[in-house]
Amino acid sequence: MTRLSNTVAVVTGGGRGIGREIALQQAREGAKVAVLARTVTEIEETVSLIEGEGGQAVAISTDMIDLAAVENAFTRIAAQLGAIDILINNHGSFQGFGPIWDCDPLVWWRDVEINLRGTFNACRSAAPMMLARSRGRIVNLVGGGTGNSFPHGSGYASSKAAIMRLTECLNDTTVIHGVRAFAVDPGLVRSAMTEMQLSSEAGKTYLPGIQKLFDDGVDIEPSRAALLIADIAAGRFDTLAGRLLRGIDDRDALAEDMDAIVAADGRALRFSAVEQAKL
């Protein structure tokens, strides 16, 4: 028996890239997987890959910013696969590049809406199901700009910082009832999102650092985040609930450092110790 046997995992944005790798790894660990995204052909391909490896999965086309659609998707998942144990919010958008006066405000806001509102909708739909059983784990993917400035990616950065804080608030609300939330930064992964940044004129103009990072060999394999999230789903990092874990982390070293991280209140959005003392 594998360590996620008899569990049900939901992976949003699971039709390609990091999300597909996460979904595949959840299935390899024994979970039944619901793969959500808008593009039917992509999520059906992910399901086909899972089934080809002997796993069980369903594809559900869902617009993550439509709360009713998300709620209906989660109801379908529970009916088809069983009660949801693991939610992984991987969906994301980053199309608004440049200083805010050059960005199309609708594109800028669309990034925030997909990333933050979509994550809120999924958490809001899943958490009551988990709380009713006093168990569950939610993983929200964050990224560039979560804990630092990202001047020409302000919409994406603002949404990811907000998701980090949402994760902390959610965990502090639910952890006493057995439901834990985590934030994961997968690192710089070559994906459809980064390819658009590399190829578009706006991306070349405002985000040249992305190409330089790839040129310098910074290219994290999506399997690293997928393996980390499988560990989270299996409970290995429960001590770090409410905190940030990274795809580049050495998972064994991270497991050894958990108590020290909590003692230092690390991997969280906080004022500095000096500023905290003044509050």
Automatic annotation (TrEMBL):
Listed PANTHER family: 5-KETO-D-GLUCONATE 5-REDUCTASE, ALCOHOL DEHYDROGENASE, PUTATIVE (AFU_ORTHOLOGUE AFUA_3G03445)-RELATED
Keyword Mitochondrion: no
Entry's family note: Belongs to the short-chain dehydrogenases/reductases (SDR) family.
Single GO term (MF): oxidoreductase activity
InterPro entries: NAD(P)-bd_dom_sf, SDR_fam
Gene3D superfamilies: NAD(P)-binding Rossmann-like Domain
Name of the protein in its database record: Short-chain dehydrogenase/reductase SDR
Keywords for this protein: Oxidoreductase
Phylogenetic lineage: Bacteria, Pseudomonadati, Pseudomonadota, Alphaproteobacteria, Hyphomicrobiales
